[in-house]
Amino acid sequence: MDLKDYDYISVPKELNAAIEKGINRGITYKKDKEGHKKWRLVVATIIIVGGLTTTVANVPILAKELVKIPVVGELIKILNFTGSIAEGGVRNDGLYINVDSYEEESIDLYFTRNNNLESDVPVYEFTYHQYPYELEMKLQGVRGFDIQAVKAKLEQLPLVKDVYNIITLDDSSYHIVVAFKENVAVQMEEYKNPGRLHITMTREEVRENTTPRYFVQSETYANNEAMALSSESLSADYPHHIQKTDQGNFVLELGPYETKEEALTWLKALEENQEIAVKWHIAKRKIGQSPK
User: Fold this and answer.
1) How many percent of the chain have pLDDT more than 70?
2) Architecture (CATH level 2) of domain 213-285
């Protein structure tokens, strides 16, 4: 992008003071959905420079206005974590999540406190799964989040199949899942000043062995505290995640395992632990499939 392109920016009045002290201008593009592949200006991108980051982060911006202003900030790291875990962030509390999408293959998460942009993202742990294709997002230090508004917005994206949250016993923790229609490659960029997580997902052909895998699966639950309590009863010795079934219920699940023998070993260990009051069984399914 040429520097002259920044002349196209339209800046909210609330940020005038900060802009006079050193904000460069930017633009972002969005593909025309009418099929002509024309690009047009859709929102102003504010790039914050040097020592002015604190000033801008403290400028009050209502959440409904924030989603119109994708603030860039300073890039901290880029993570490609398909098939692995992405972690980062700064310990915090009392934040509100703002989620939006400015492109068909990306999701942006911003964080505010009292309608002010936060300078850092909170502690996060993101995992990509392939049984089925889902991005599991765990965020600490968050107290507010409108799941219905986010669900309605993100489910308009061509790759997104479902969006849901998972109940936890920690009222400062949010556990959000984005389910995809097909396998995707996921890349995430973490920014600060202000804090933002930019997630990009692109279609990716499954190149791995697609042989069915085995799981140790619990009885079904509603998305409630009973499920959260059962999950809490499993120590770190039993790595698991909560999975939505194709009927809309939820299960606790260990796996995937390549062999039934490996799954049976874990099943035996769970059944012998008297502190875990959960009924388990062995399940088998193909890549991309949800539990039944």
Assistant:
1) 74
2) 2-Layer Sandwich (3.30)
Class of domain 3-203: mainly beta
Q: Which amino acid does the sequence have at 167? A: I
Q: Where are the domains of the chain?
A: 3-203, 213-285
Per-residue model confidence as pLDDT tens digits over 215-241:
999 999 999 999 999 999 997 889 999
| Amino acid identity, position 38 | K
* Predicted structure pTM score: 0.73
pLDDT in the model for residue 71: 58
> Which residue's entry shows tokens 């920044």?
6
